[in-house]
Design goal:
Length: 388
């Protein structure tokens, strides 16, 4: 009996040891695998301006909007939301603005009385603070509509006089109201908040509304059930048409080193882009001075400038002094494209509100753009763009 008991004890110990070693090996392997996975996906950190930084890593993943290459960690982040178009004003008292340098794509057109306004589309980068946010205009809605199903559209009110320039009415007509439309009037604090001192000089109240890209994306997710998919489960990019991109090819002898866009000729809103050969990019002056981002303290810089020549007329809707504009965003027209220090003369075509604006060269081929911030200047037919 003693020998049998001893045998059972020995066998039990052997089985216990085998079980313990196996269990440890299994969980240890799993833990190492989990650590390896976590190490492969960099965790974002928040910068001083509120934007997210995704750390180092190989940049292999192209942004669908402008072709810039980012890390897999950053791609995983942007795949959780949808494009966000934000109206940021350009009235001289609104400068310096916040966040424009982080946009993937920017559109600039006259809002009223010769004053230009920008719509900035964010998707692949987190801008942190953005603003001053200003009101909606109908022609910007036409360009926002190119960014897939139900793009987020952030603004503070908008043109609402009955007639063809009624942007708020059109937002409801498109089925955006209370859904992908991010009107500050309906959302309020703390997603939007006023900062009376942000520009560093006294300004009127209408120049003080700010938000952050993260707050807007988070609100859309929590309150509108809008992430990368909508409430029906459809991905935002189901019908999205991407542009084609190429690697930089700077000209040995630039032929488009300076580009001036006059808009209405008001000296405060004349835009000059100057080619920087060292970065193969264009830096922006606005009103005769460098256009600076409030949070980076750097001059705005872009890779591609696309000037679209369109009809522009008064909406004649009874609004004071006929200040509401209408642009001919549909159809086709002349385009001038600048990148790599050179100019391409071509055409643009847009067949409907939701259709992508296509850009062609003089031979009728679609233009391949440099990877980087794209800036669309909406000029009026007859405007003379000075190129030197």
């Amino acid at each position: 009996m003693d020998n049998k008991k001893l045998l059972y004890i020995v066998i039990g110990l052997i089985l216990y040891i085998i079980s313990t070693v196996s269990t440890y090996a299994f969980f240890s392997s799993g833990a190492k695998h989990q650590v390896a996975q976590q190490a492969a996906v960099a965790q974002p950190t928040k910068s001083a301006d509120g934007s997210l930084s995704f750390g180092a890593g190989p940049k292999t993943q192209p942004c669908p909007l402008n072709g810039v290459l980012y890390t897999q960690a950053q791609e995983k982040w942007w795949e959780g939301h949808r494009p966000l178009a934000v109206m940021i004003e350009n009235e001289i008292d609104a400068r310096p603005q916040s966040g424009i340098s982080f946009a993937d794509v920017t559109y600039e057109a006259i809002a009223e009385a010769g004053i230009t306004r920008t719509m900035n589309v964010f998707y692949c980068q987190d801008a942190g603070i953005i603003g001053p946010v200003r009101s909606a205009r109908t022609y910007f809605l036409d360009y926002a509509s190119e960014y897939g199903n139900y793009p987020l559209y952030a603004h503070v009110g908008g043109a609402n006089t009955p007639g063809p320039a009624d942007a708020l009415g059109q937002i409801d007509d498109y089925g955006w109201g209370g859904y992908n439309d991010m009107n500050q009037f309906a959302i309020g604090f703390p997603v939007y908040q006023r900062d009376e001192s942000r520009q560093g000089h006294p300004v009127a109240t209408e120049h003080t509304m700010y938000s952050t890209t993260t707050k807007l994306w988070d609100y859309a997710k929590a309150n509108r059930n809008l992430t990368n998919v909508d409430k029906t489960g459809q991905a935002w990019d189901t019908n999205f048409v991407k542009y084609s991109f190429k690697n930089d090819a700077p000209a040995s002898s630039p032929t488009a080193s300076s580009i001036t866009v006059p808009f209405t000729g008001d000296s405060d809103y004349v835009v000059q882009w100057t080619y920087d050969k060292a970065t193969n990019a264009y830096v922006r002056d606005n009103g005769g001075v460098p256009h600076i981002d409030r949070d980076t303290n750097k001059q705005l810089s872009v890779k591609d400038i696309i000037v679209l020549f369109e009809t522009r007329q008064s909406a004649d809707d009874g609004y004071e002094n006929d200040l509401h504009n209408l642009y001919g965003t549909f159809g086709s027209g002349k385009a001038e494209i600048f990148m790599d220090g050179t100019e391409i003369r071509g055409t643009w075509k847009k067949t409907s509100r939701t259709a992508r604006t296509q850009i062609f060269d003089a031979s009728g081929n679609e233009v391949q753009f440099d990877r980087g911030h794209m800036w669309f200047e909406i000029a009026t037919i007859g405007d003379v763009i000075t190129v030197k």
